[in-house]
Amino acid sequence: MSISRRTARSVRILGVASASAALALGVAGNAFACNISEFSAAAKCDGEKGVISVTDKDPSGTPATVTVFLGEKLIGTQDVVGTREGVTVDFSEDWAPNATYRVHIKAGNQVDEDIKPDLTTPGEACKTEPTPTPTPTPPVSETPTPSEPATPTPSASEPEESATPTPSAPESTPAAPADSVPTPAGGSSNLAETGASSNTGVIAGIAAALVAVGGGAVFFGMRRRGTAGNR
Questions:
Q1: How far, in Å, CA of 106 to CA of 109, rounded?
Q2: What is the topology classification, in CATH, of domain 36-120?
Q3: I want to staple 107 with a disulfide (CB 3.0 to 4.6 A). Which of 31, 93, 111, 150 is the partner?
Q4: Which pLDDT score is estimated for 166?
Q5: Which of 90, 16, 18, 21 is closest to 53 using CA atoms?
Q6: Maximum pairwise Cα distance, the chain
Q7: Closest CA to 107 of 53, 43, 32
Q8: Of 69, 84, 79, nearest in space to 107 by CA
Q9: What is the pLDDT of residue 207?
Q10: Where are the domains of the chain?
């Protein structure tokens, strides 16, 4: 059975229309798909505290997981479902000036990558109000109650009484008289107290020799006199 020219023309028109519809649906699907460009990050201050804010402007509402890193350190992870107007999640972080943070987005099978470029914090940290220095309170003197009389505090100038009595110094023994002083070993005597000299022995020897000589002279003289008388 042959196809008429009119039927073939109708089939051709129908094919073109189907292809156009499929192309339009594909473009529309891509337009509503989640994309990394729909995410943004910023470092902000919440009063005196720092925060890392991540905004999801995905009109398709695809659930996404946001993870923030500082180098290899994990700061935190949160889930977010974006809208055309945008949904923001905050991470509390006391960020330092000019620090670099990496923000990773995981949204189904459509997105699994970092926001580019990496987030760099401002050059000035969140300002903090100076803490006032408290005025020192003067100490309150403790006044003893009538029922509890205060114990007198010993004066610093008065020495504390010792628990152990101090032994009294032994009485000095009177010095022995000079006559009773024993002679030291070796036969030497204290010549300084008696007035004697260390040459006493020599003088005594000389005196004994003179006495012997004188005695001899007397003896010989008497003998000589006796011999002369006998003549």
A1: 8
A2: Immunoglobulin-like (2.60.40)
A3: 111
A4: 54
A5: 90
A6: 223
A7: 32
A8: 79
A9: 84
A10: 36-120
Other beta carbons within 10 angstroms of residue 41's beta carbon come to: 20
| Alpha-carbon distances of 216 from 8, 206, 220, rounded to whole Å | 195, 15, 6
pLDDT single digits (tens) 190-226: 444 444 555 677 788 888 888 888 888 878 777 777 7
Between 137 and 54, the more confident residue is: 54
Which residue type occupies 70? Answer: L
For residue 13, give both structure tokens: 């028109």
Q: Which helix (H) or strand (E) holds 44?
A: strand 39-46
String of DSSP letters for 80-101:
EE--SS-EEEEEE--PPTT-EE
The pLDDT of residue 23: 47
99: its two tokens = 């620090």
Predicted TM-score (pTM) of this structure: 0.45
The C-alpha R_g of the chain, in whole angstroms, comes to: 64
The tokens describing 123, both together, are 């050059």
Which of 31, 101, 28, 90 has its CA nearest to residue 56?
90
- Rounded CA-CA distance 183/195 in Å is 15
Q: List own/partner pairs for 129-133 with CB under 8 A and 24 or more apart.
A: 129/48
pLDDT tens per residue, range 152-187: 555 555 545 545 555 554 454 545 444 444 544 444
Q: Find tokens 């005025």 and name the residue.
A: 135
What gap in Å lies between CA 50 and CA 119, rounded to an integer? 14
**Euclidean distance between CA atoms 37 and 205, whole angstroms:** 137
